[in-house]
Design brief:
heterotrimer, A alpha+beta, B alpha/beta, C alpha/beta, A: OB fold (Dihydrolipoamide Acetyltransferase, E2P), six-stranded antiparallel β-sheet, three-stranded antiparallel β-sheet, 9 strands, globular, C: alpha/beta, Aspartate Aminotransferase, domain 2, Aspartate Aminotransferase, domain 1, 2 domains, four-stranded antiparallel β-sheet, 13 strands
Chain lengths: 127, 452, 493
């Protein structure tokens, strides 16, 4: 399981990368593995305001649909439009080109884990 | 013991002993006594002869459409039924098989659905069609709800022509309140057609769709290009409803004029009238809206060796995966009816379908001419408006009375508009198809003359 | 035994590539004056001929569909143990009666004096279903089970309105079929999931907490999707009713208790019946179904229109009723499907119907007995007509339920239902129904046991299945990513 350092992680299997006063959000390698091959990604409109835990969008595999939730409150600044034609990027490059959404705001709280913390969290989950 | 229950008494005893049980009753111990019953108050088992006799008697008390010259339409039409349609439908591999969730052993069904989708797409002029819906009325409702979804629920008004089949509109009313939409109805003009200006007036900037039927309930062909433009001017989706699918043989589908959805009833394509069901709803839309489209969908793909194969796809829109967020709660398509339509259309062929539609048109024009020539008691309600194979005839008396009197003259003359209230006169809707030879027209005309 | 070679069949649009004119059907001769369409119809609306809608001969059509049919497995071929689908025999006598001209060639808008037999049949079937369920009212209008669900929930909504109430929530067990929450949403409610207890039935404690005056109804499948009867059904119904709610019963599993128990005694307010499951009407490759709904006294006034009423002079259709929810679809129901169901019910009779359920339950328990141990049984409550195993034993060798299903195809069986209910991960939901002979059930068990062994000794064989089907494992991911839903001329070029 790839869990890069330098990113923060949420307990719903999202990763967060800070870029100035905004954050980029995606799903972890573990999450995409659980979902299977993604065939479609539904992304929010730019400008949408979200609260923590709001549904940002959905990820569809052939047999299932999963929501991904807003890890922080903020406004949607940008969405990864490449995913419209290449939803497989979420599987193939979860932490890079498979990013989902950019939100204004920051991920300061203690509810976010670092790489080691997330690895531990995964181990506990599967126990 | 019964032929349709696979285990006889001895089989049961054998299995029970294998399970270490004394009686089948033990297997039902988990059902609380308070809900149990010891058998049903129903008659005993009946043999095939009894069944044929009894159900045969029930059937023969009905007056079948083929028993006398028949001009019934109003949403259900009597067209040719090639013998091969039923022969193919009767193949056990088609009618006793299940939904093709295991594509490796259902390529027959899947390819049929793919061909059906393609045929509907080509006929409607839109690039995507689904695997069918229950019937024309529910397809219409689905189209309205689809429009609501495509516009993200931001517009709650739905504009519909009064000349959409009144029964379809009744069904829409049932769903509208629960769906949170408001239905605004536009009456036709004096020519029986929808006025595009009225569309602008009614839709304003509040409508998510403008729906019209063509040929409409009165049999009249609408000005589709203008109506699509009017809908789009108002920022609404344009929906065309078709109840007589054979009209596609001569009339281009709404997709060619900019309609966003073309939907309706395909019963005319080889599906028995069957006293109203099962019929065959169809739905086509532009592929950019595919994700909002209800119903099943077959897609083309490959197998692991690169051979072409088909499978159900985009199931994530459907209820069994999306559950509370499904686009609809439709579970079945009308698989067997879609098969019937596919066989029927492929037997007709493109040119054959055109010839069939032309035959309907020719006979209708001839009947209109002959009825108008009787003069006196009978006249066309909309003599100047273009029709395909159906028109409204007015006489002395209500439509219901006229139907009864003409029936006693040995003609199934049409469907009365008496109880289908709307901005149109009380008369008889008459449909003419390729199955009405000149002798049928003779019989109808002389019956009308008698009643003059 | 080897199969004989069958040629792969091109699409209809790929036939007759030179687009030569042939004739597939001879139309009745034109015995009225010809017309030129563009002179009679508005010329801008006339269709351009479609060069890619071929004309082929009659035999070409016959061969096309014959070859396609050979690619399908079907109930007539062998066991189709799909849980929740009740794949039973589709009797041929049903096919005869449904084709009587007095039924098949009848127009729904003919005068009532001309359709008495048809109205009478509807009335008879309603009466039979009322007897079978022990409930006082019925409608045969819904086109399928899901449609029946919507009808039931809309009647509930109307009943609450009549009381001056407007509730917002419908409770749905986490084991429910996806149509249930989809229906609730479609009807304008919010579907709220209610958890199952450890034995797979509804958690009464959770129900007690969740059932309040915001809840319109609880939707229940009885027995539930694990094949387990809600043993606390009376307590559940009491709880819901006492707080002003309604019980909606999904009748998908009715095949397990006909003649043994009555939903009317279970407190059901509305229950849909899948005629294409319990009452043998054919699945047709995906439809048509029929989903009649039987109702309690409380919902009786709200049945859809038109209703069939029996008067002194015969039967008539009642179109208007302000208390009704309205009309749910065109006309009166999937009538020709109703003909088949009544044929079935009359053919079996009271005892036949009861033995139908008896054997359905017996066979399911035989399968449970033979496969338990080789496959993991998550909930060990008694099974009625279906049993749910999961793939956790096989998963140790990285063999999952999908693989087991595909390998079953090589043994000549249709696989069970998979991945449903959601509360069982890697589920294999097996419902044999009662039609086949015992040796067919035993052969299925033999095949499943063989596959369980293969999962251990040769997992690759199972994971790479199927090997003996017209096409290999189909790439469903590609189908969803590269959507192609229609043939286009560019495709063939």
């Amino acid at each position: 399981m790839t869990i890069p350092d330098g990113l923060k992680y949420g307990r719903s299997h999202e990763w967060i990368r800070t870029e100035g006063d905004s954050v980029v959000v995606g799903i972890t390698h573990y999450a995409q593995d659980q979902l299977g091959e993604i065939v479609y990604v539904e992304l929010p409109d730019v400008g949408t305001a979200v609260a923590v835990g709001d549904e940002l969008g959905t990820l569809e595999s052939v047999k299932a649909v999963s929501e991904f939730l807003a890890p922080i409150a903020g406004e949607v600044l940008e969405v990864n439009t490449r995913l419209e034609d290449e939803p497989n990027l979420v599987n193939d490059d979860s932490y890079g080109d498979g990013w989902l959404v950019k939100l204004s705001g920051s991920a300061q709280g203690e509810e976010f884990l670092d790489a080691a913390g997330y690895r531990e969290f995964l181990e506990q989950e599967s126990a | 013991m019964h032929p349709w229950v696979g285990a006889g008494p001895e089989d049961r005893r054998h299995i029970l002993s294998e399970l270490g049980l004394k009686s089948i009753d033990e297997l039902f111990a988990s059902i609380p006594a308070g809900v149990c019953v010891d058998g049903l108050d129903l008659p005993p088992a009946r043999d095939e002869d009894w069944i044929r006799r009894t159900l045969g008697e029930m059937a023969s008390t009905n007056v079948a459409m083929d028993s006398m010259p028949c001009f019934l339409g109003a949403g259900v039409y009597r067209h040719v039924q090639p013998s091969i349609v039923d022969a193919v439908l009767s193949r056990a591999e088609f009618f006793t098989s299940y939904t093709p969730y295991q594509p490796e052993i259902s390529q027959g069904t899947l390819q049929v659905i793919f061909e059906f989708q393609t045929l509907i797409s080509r006929l409607t002029g839109l690039d995507t069609a689904n695997a069918s819906l229950y019937d024309g009325a529910t397809a219409f409702v689905e189209a309205v709800l689809f429009s609501h979804r495509v516009l993200r629920g931001k517009r709650d008004v739905v504009v519909v022509a009064e000349t959409i089949h009144p029964m379809y509109r009744r069904v829409l009313d049932t769903y509208a309140e629960a769906a949170g939409i408001e239905v605004a109805v536009i009456a036709p003009g004096n020519d029986g057609r929808l006025d595009p200006d009225k569309v602008h007036e009614t839709a304003g900037d509040r409508a998510c769709c403008v729906a019209v039927q063509s040929p409409n309930f009165l049999g009249i062909i609408e000005d589709l290009p203008q109506l699509a433009a009017a809908a789009h001017d108002c920022g609404a989706l344009a929906v065309e409803v078709v109840t007589e699918a054979v009209s596609f043989g001569l009339l281009a589908g709404g997709g060619s004029f900019g309609f966003d959805v073309v939907c309706g009833e395909a019963q005319s394509f080889g599906v028995a009238p069957g006293f109203g069901g099962p019929h065959l709803g169809f739905f086509a839309c532009a592929s950019k809206h595919l994700r909002q489209m209800p119903g099943r969908l077959a897609g083309e793909t490959v197998d692991e060796d690169g051979n072409r194969a088909f499978c159900l796809t985009m199931s994530t829109r459907e209820q069994h995966i999306r559950r509370a967020k499904a686009t609809s709660n439709i579970c079945t398509n009308q698989g067997l009816m879609a098969l019937a339509a596919t066989v029927w259309l492929e037997a007709m062929g493109g040119n054959g379908l055109r010839d069939l539609a032309t035959s309907c048109l020719a006979r209708t024009e001839e009947l209109k001419r002959r009825v108008t020539a009787i003069g006196n008691a009978w006249r066309l309600a909309y003599p100047a408006s273009p029709t395909f194979n159906e028109f409204l005839l007015i006489g002395h008396g209500s439509g219901t009375e006229l139907v009864e009197r003409l029936a006693s003259e040995g003609v199934l003359a049409g469907v009365p508009t008496t109880d289908w209230g709307g901005s149109w006169p009380d008369g008889l809707l008459m449909a003419v198809t390729e199955r009405n030879p000149a002798t049928d027209l003779d019989a109808l005309v002389s019956a009308l003359e008698k009643l003059s | 035994m080897k199969r004989r070679a069958i040629r792969s069949e091109p699409l209809f649009f790929e036939r007759n590539s030179r687009r030569v004119r042939r004739q597939g059907y001879l139309l009745p001769a034109l015995d009225v004056p010809e017309v030129k369409p563009s002179e009679v119809l508005p010329p801008e609306l006339v269709r351009e001929p479609d060069p890619h809608f071929p004309d082929v001969s009659e035999m070409e059509v016959v061969q096309h569909f014959h070859r396609l049919s050979q690619l399908n497995y079907a109930v007539d071929e062998g066991l189709y143990p799909l849980g929740s689908c009740t794949m039973k025999y589709n009797p041929r006598i049903n096919e005869e009666t449904a084709r009587f001209p007095g039924f098949a060639s009848l127009h729904p808008l003919q005068p009532q004096s001309q359709i008495q037999g048809a109205l009478g049949l509807i009335w008879e079937l309603e009466e039979s279903l009322k007897t079978i369920t022990g409930m006082p009212g019925a409608t045969l209008q819904p086109a399928a089970g899901a449609h029946g669900e919507l009808t039931g929930i809309l009647m509930t909504r109307k009943a609450l309105e009549a009381r001056g109430e407007k509730r917002e929530v419908v409770l749905v067990p986490d084991s429910a079929h996806g149509t249930n929450p989809a229906t609730a949403t479609f009807a304008g409610y919010r579907a709220q999931e209610i958890p199952s207890a450890d034995d797979g039935t509804v958690d009464l404690g959770a129900l007690d907490r969740m059932m309040d005056e915001t809840v319109a109804a609880l939707m229940l499948t009885v027995p539930n999707t694990l094949g387990v009867f809600e043993h606390q059904i009376l307590e559940i119904a009491d709880l819901v009713h006492s707080r002003g709610g309604f019980i909606y019963m999904d009748g998908a599993n009715l095949n397990s208790f006909v003649g043994r128990a009555l939903p009317g005694l279970m407190g059901a307010d509305a229950m849909h019946i899948n005629l294409h499951k319990t009452f043998s009407t054919p699945h047709g490759g995906g439809g048509p179904g029929a989903g009649p709904v039987t109702v309690s006294e409380a919902l009786l006034p709200h049945l859809p229109v038109p209703k069939v009423i029996r008067g002194e002079d015969g039967f008539e259709l009642q179109w208007e009723d302000p208390a009704s929810i309205g009309q749910m679809r065109g006309f009166y129901g999937n009538f020709l499907i109703l003909v088949r169901a009544l044929t079935y019910i009359w053919s079996l009779g009271a005892e036949g119907l009861r033995s139908m359920s008896d054997v359905a339950v017996l066979y399911a328990n035989l399968i449970r007995h033979r496969l338990n141990g080789a496959y993991h049984l998550k909930f060990d409550a008694p099974s009625l007509h279906e049993v749910v195993f999961d793939d956790s034993i096989q998963a140790r060798h990285e063999v999952h339920n999908v693989d087991i299903a595909k390998r079953l195809l090589d043994y000549g069986f249709h696989p069970p239902t998979m991945s449903f209910p959601l509360i069982v991960h890697g589920a294999l939901m097996i419902e044999p129904a009662e039609s086949v002979a015992p040796d067919e059930v035993e052969a299925f068990c033999d095949a499943m046991l063989a596959i369980a062994k293969e999962a251990e000794s040769d997992p690759e064989l199972v994971k790479s299945a199927p090997h003996d089907t017209p096409v290999g494992r189909v790439d469903e991911v590609r189908a969803a990513r590269n959507l192609v839903t229609c043939w286009t001329p560019e495709e063939t070029e």
